[in-house]
Amino acid sequence: QGAAHSLGTAPVCRSPAGLTKQTTRTHVKPPAPPRGMTIPTLSYHIFPCLSSPDQRTAPQRHQPASKIVNLVPTDRSRGMNADYGAPTELAGPLQQRRALYQPRLPPCLQGATVRVEYGDATTTIDPTGAHAVAQAFPRTYGQRLVTFLAPDDTAGAGKAVDERPPIRVGVVFSGRQSPGGHNVVWGLHDALKAYNPHSILYGFIGGTEGLFANKTLEITDDVLASYKNQGGFDLLGRSIDQIRSSKQVSAAMTTCQNLNLDGLVIVGGVTSNSDAAQLAETLVQKNCKTKVVGVPVSLNGDLKNQFVETTVGFDTVCKVNSQLISNVCLDAISAGKYYYFVRLMGRKASHVALECALQSHPNMLIMGEEVALSKLTLMEVINKICDGVQARAELGKHHGVLLIPEGLIESIPEMYALIQEISILHNNNVPVTEIPTQVSPWAAALFQFLPPFIRRELLLHQESDNSAQLSQIDTEQLLAHLVEAEMIKRTKEGRYKGKKFSSVCHFFGYQARGSLPSNFDCDYAYVLGHISLHMIAAGLTGYMATVANLKDPVHKWRCAAAPLTAMMSVRRHLRGPGAIPIGKPAIHPSPIDLKGKAYELLREKASSFLLDDFYRTPGGIQFEGPGSDAKPITLTIEDQDYMGDIEMLKLYLDKVGA
Prior knowledge:
Strand content: 5-15%
Subunit structure: Tetramer of two alpha (regulatory) and two beta (catalytic) chains.
CATH topology of the largest domain: Rossmann fold
Radius of gyration: 25 Å
Shape: globular
InterPro entries: PfpB_PPi_PFK, Phosphofructokinase_dom, PKF_sf
GO biological process, one term: response to glucose
Number of strands: 16
Low-confidence stretches: 1-79, 573-581
GO molecular function: 6-phosphofructokinase activity; ATP binding; diphosphate-fructose-6-phosphate 1-phosphotransferase activity; metal ion binding
Strand order of the largest sheet: 3-8-7-6-9-10-15-16-5-4
Number of helices: 23
CATH architecture of the largest domain: 3-Layer(aba) Sandwich
Number of domains: 2
Function: Regulatory subunit of pyrophosphate--fructose 6-phosphate 1-phosphotransferase.
Largest sheet: 10 strands, mixed
């Protein structure tokens, strides 16, 4: 309440030149989208430092025209970007050199075929929702785990190439563009042609809209040449990122039938793979031969469970953001008078923020999972931050860097409830202008308390998964403004005697999505592309391509496939134990494990690094030499190997049986 008088305008921040100006975002919106001194207990996390190129010809500037097939022209398909799939000139020497990098494969994938080993039947990651998942997916629930191994030498090489029938496969990008996505297509293409040179790979132009409209591009070596190891999703593009309604599912099935597809590969995150599971179930029920498989590609890193250790794109995005954050840290300590509030893309979970904190060591990190667990109100979060600012001022430090995940605003109880009310009204097609008058009285009071720019952003139309547009809500500006108001209040009360609080706000999100992928993401994506082909060849549907043991070198990676239904759970009506399951089964974002090793390290160093400026500078992504094979710190710390544990258990059981 003490800050209410200053909430009428957007936060005012000081530029490095000392001029007052309205804070602006550091990203550019995409064009016309379809649609006494106490150390606070909240984590102010900074952490200690954890401690020959291919000479083939580079892609030519001019390449043969791509073969684009539009079997069912519609108004929708005509509106798609005509540049998708067009040969692209690799203008920069780094781009050209990266196109020559040959991703590495584990031994089991280095031949044209693999040996398929079937494990035990699966249930779900949440036993309380198993019955609901089984009812919703009667044809694909309970499928067995699958492991891909190198062919048995005693059995020979299997069928000759000409004895293996050609396979027709389609691939579609669904979800936010993530570095490494193109290598999934490349790996799929190479595996397909090795299996049988007459096999055909179709890419759907414009994402899921292209799938519905049957607008395809035949993927060839010439088409791929200028997209290998490159960022973005511009080979094929993306659109609404959903295959959910009965009309959409029907259109996708019709396309699969018209193209006589043996398999459809859906590249995306939690929502896209949930849709893939539903599509696979429907196609089985309709006796459609097309096998549907998913590939975990998401910059958010929230598609994480016993089977999936991390997602393609997460490593690159965190490395790019960490470089930007470390630059900001050095700028802060150089000027000595600004607090930088940095919001990071990553949706509801704080995986990107945690990884970036481990890599760059900012002064504070406010994690959504902590706020939700402690049920901290908005003003309690503000007071925690102000306590940190005041503690640093006692040491003569009037600068700092604070990281905020974009999902933080949904983790604050009263803000979460407000967003849910707005979401319900959106789903009921209530006009945006009428929503503020139709929320509950307490929600209306909170809504009016918020500054106008936050009100506008909360009312934006929802994402394709019916969630709030978190990337468009300037949480960092809201916090900066409230912190400034609270520090002014403390100054007037005589509780704070330091310099005037000044802030600079940033949102790091879009800057990293189109980055050149790291070696890790290049290798990981290429391997997943190969696995996708072998899943289809083995007749698997409703599965996700997975790789275990990612913390080790590529030659030690274990390739597998896990049923999508095994990753599902059912949302609960209330948070906490005893909550009532509601809604449809789906793959949900995995939050930070507050009992995990990465978080344990974070907590261990929180207090000391709040007060010390031990900033870490990781620098840019390294593609050659020392550091080129660095992997996410959270991946290496957690040391997760669920599939490896199963193998060890089998060995022990065999010994007991003997």
